Amino acid sequence: MPARATPQRIGPAQAAAGQSAGSRRPLHGNAKGGLGSIEAAVHLGFAVLLVASVVRYVMRHTPADNLLVLGLAIAACLLYAVVALLLVQDRRGTPWMAALVAVWAVLVVAAPSFGWCSFALFFLCRSALRGAASYLLAGAITLATAAGLFRLGNGTDLAMLLGPVAVGVMLTLIYDRIQHDAEEQRRLHADISLAQGQLAASERRAGTIAERERVSREIHDTVTQGLASSLLLLEAAGRGWPSAAARDGLLQATSLLRANLAETRSLVHELASPGLESVPLPEALLATARQYVPGITLLVTGELRPVSPDVRHALLRVVQSAASNILLHAAASAATVTLGFLPDAVTLDIYDDGAGFDPGAAAPPSHTGGYGLRAMRRRVEQLGGTFSVQSAPGDGTIVAAQLPVVAGA
């Protein structure tokens, strides 16, 4: 039974057009690719059966009888070729198909042995036409075949009359079911293609948002924190100038600005931590923290071992942001970074004995700041870790993070 060739993948913009085009020709696989294997088999079967019927008729009848039948057979063959060609070009050939059925009806009544070719004509008719025309002409083919076979049985064999009608009804029901399933498959393919397009667009939007947030965190943890700390040092130096303390503050601000320039350049080159990639993690954390709090100390617990680049990068940024907050807000006299190694995780605690604050009453992020804690939390949680802040006014602050040894584990 004819069926569609394997459907091609279509984009969401082509889904509706593809569905419409497919519904016009369920037996034809592709207008540009030519006939599918099933269609070719149907046409080849028609040619073989037609030749066999001609040979059989010529061998069993006189030359005078052959002229009319051969003429009708040639006409039917030419009309069949025209309809098949129009089908390949995805063009309607209703008049040609009607002419073919008319010629075929005369031929099969005059020479019932040609009735075997009715199967191919039935499929061609259902493939080339739509709506009522396809049912009417397919019914005409069925009735003409039944009349020819009934005549072949000398008008006494009812099976010859009812058999083609029953077969025609069954073929119609089967073909309608196949056509319905093919159209449903095309609709599903169109829906899937549309959903894939929408999913791709959604993923692009989500990727853009995630990238914006990532860059925002990196800028906050590097450029913004560094500039804020440098500004604080420069303001303090301006108030105490030209004392030795002011000169030291100026030198520290200059050093911090240079480091911040290097951080900014690193953002352009894969957001790396300049100069700290090959340094052991404890030394890298201490160097990062001391850019903001020169007197901060480091403690390491557990057995030191390597961590993934993502975890290392997150730890460096958390220390950097926390140390910047100590410089800007805490007025602390002592601060400590504790790096701990557990069997399946690494922990980081940054403690200061400064002014402290109420984490529940912290101001929301705005153009004046407030992004630090949120950025640290997001960075840690995106890698499958946990983040917490313990603080109270006058009691200092502890910023704690725990990350799996492998990011996302």
How would you explain this protein's 3D organization?
This protein has 409 residues and is of the alpha+beta class. 64% of the residues lie in helices and 8% in strands. It is built from eleven helices and five strands, in the order αααααααααβαββαββ. It has helices at 15-24, 37-60, 63-88, 94-110, 118-128, 132-152, 158-240, 244-268, 281-290, 309-330, 372-382, and strands at residues 297-301, 335-341, 345-352, 386-391, 397-404. A five-stranded mixed sheet has the order 1-2-3-5-4, with helices on one face. Helix 10 (309-330) links the parallel strand 1 and strand 2 (335-341). The chain is rod-shaped. Mean pLDDT is 77; it is low at 1-35 and 269-274.
Topology diagram in text:
Elements: H1 15-24, H2 37-60, H3 63-88, H4 94-110, H5 118-128, H6 132-152, H7 158-240, H8 244-268, H9 281-290, E1 297-301, H10 309-330, E2 335-341, E3 345-352, H11 372-382, E4 386-391, E5 397-404
Helix pairs in contact: 1-7, 2-3, 2-5, 3-4, 3-5, 4-6, 5-6, 6-7, 7-8, 7-10, 7-11, 9-10, 10-11
Describe the structure using short key phrases.
409 residues, alpha+beta, disordered N terminus
